[in-house]
Amino acid sequence: MGYTHYWDSQPGEYDSVAFSAFVDHVRKVLDATTVAVAGPDGNGKPEITNELVAFNGAADESCEALHITRVVVAEDDPSLVFNFCKTDWQPYDSIVTATLLLYRHQFPESIKLSSDGEPEEWENGRVLAQTACGFSPEIALSES
Description:
Order of helices and strands: EEHEEEEEEHEH
Radius of gyration: 14 Å
Distance between the termini: 15 Å
Number of strands: 9
């Protein structure tokens, strides 16, 4: 077990302009933090494109990668796609929570967030998103 964040998303294709706006917010978050992040395997650079946001903590401060794609494909349940990112309290956790809050902010009808943590444990991510993007996304977690 470990400290993990979860999100359910509706399958389908997000509007490219709206997803690009989300990606721009994620770039601002990465620019605003001093926490080291890396590519999905914990090495190299984060993968941030208009189709994908994927990153992990860097090297020894990594756990599992966060992957968010513009096209969400349902494999088992055609109405819902379950995702998760275990951060195990590593320093990049605040970047993961900021990104997930911005994701839900951009697509509020399509994303449902939950976590092993309490809403107050997402506060660092909310503050990071606010500092980077100039607005405060709501911390709205569903019961897990």
